[in-house]
Amino acid sequence: MSQTVHRITIGEAPPSRLDKALARDVPEAAHLSRSRLMRLIAEGAVSKNGVPLTDTKAKVAEGDVFEIAVPDAVEVETLPEAIPLDIIHEDDDLLVVNKSAGMVVHPAPGSYSGTLVNALLHHFGGDLSGVGGEKRPGIVHRIDKDTSGLLVVAKSDAAHHGLADQFAAHTVERTYRALCYGVPDRGDPRLRGIKGINFEPGNIIKVTTQLARHKTDRQKQAVLFNGGRHAVTRIRVIETFDRAAAEIYCNLETGRTHQIRVHAAHIGHALIGDPTYGGRRRLGADTPGAETAKAFARQALHAETLGFIHPVTREALSFTTPLPEDMSVLRKALGGL
Q1: Which of 5, 57, 230, 262 sits 20 to 30 Å CA-CA off 301?
Q2: For the residues of 205-266, what is the DSSP string, one character each?
Q3: Residues tagged active-site
């Protein structure tokens, strides 16, 4: 079986356990979570000086060098599936779809079926002209499984390259609507003391940080100010609910993994329902909508607006989709008009 070998040198002040130290120091590009590393250790795929280590609690020290032999992924054929799609726009080169919450965008370990790509392959049938020499949809950006809203998908090489260039240049308009704990108020002195926050005209709170995978929980992103990837989110309050919660617009200048969710939590206003960044935060028992918010089964985040230049016709396009039913119900329970 073919494999890729990663050579890891442990940095200063490492965690004492092998699995934790590797999870901290393995390059992000390797895509190895701590749980995956624990399995690799148990399988004897991690070695030091040519000797396999199978104890996840083995001691490590700064400067130790380990080799991790990761078996190459097995190619799994992505099959068309007759899954209903809410298509907002379609032409010869691209398609804009309103993704429902709970749908994974692209097949990955543990989610090889039921994805947006499976649904698109069925929808396109024989009309897909091909991306990169293969008959497959061109996914140029993604939104989290449990985030609803708009995505653009390329149907041709020309569209794929043109859209990818616009996303790389941060010229695509992407506005999300969300429901968060508390009210992000630029007059709040606490906010003024948080690193990475600036204020812009129009009651906009600008959050500028670096983002990178969390050192110990590889499924999360963490705020940094050295290293990582540049991330900018602009937040504006639309409506407040008894100072206990707020409806906000979030505009993405960049598009990093979990960006809005991480930035909202960073400024102390995590999204309602967010299982990863919301912690144990809850609304007070006597707050209107508290029970609805407690039972909300996903992060209250919706990709509402998407605007870009058509990569072939050069026409300016902009699309908007209303809140899904679950967020509308939550908003109403909180006291929204």
Answers
A1: 230
A2: EEEEEEEEE-SS-TTSEEEESSSSEEEEEEEEEEEEETTTEEEEEEEESS--TTHHHHHHHH
A3: 144
